[in-house]
Write a structure and sequence with these properties.
Layout: H1 18-24, E1 32-37, E2 40-45, H2 48-58, H3 67-73
Antiparallel strand pairs: 1-2
Length: 76
């Protein structure tokens, strides 16, 4: 099993190494799904069902919807 590494930036962003992108069939603009279970994170390409679910619940996530929230929490 090959190990691929990425460095996390100060904005908590990381680049997916080419072998990971190729293995998952990920292209620019695609969405990624993260599954977390007992300290293990699984990364996979998001499916249409993942995206539909995210859109369905997005309107219920209203606690961060103002300019003040953006200024206070925008760097998270």
């Amino acid at each position: 099993m090959a190990v691929n590494l990425s460095r996390v930036t100060s904005k908590y962003q990381a680049t997916l190494p080419r072998p990971v992108r190729e293995a998952l069939g990920i292209r620019a603009g695609d969405s990624i799904a993260y599954e977390i279970e007992r300290g293990v994170v699984r990364l996979r390409r998001a499916t249409p069902l993942d995206l539909a679910y995210a859109q369905a619940v997005s309107k219920t996530l209203t606690e961060w919807e103002s300019r003040a929230d953006d200024e206070a929490y925008g760097e998270l």
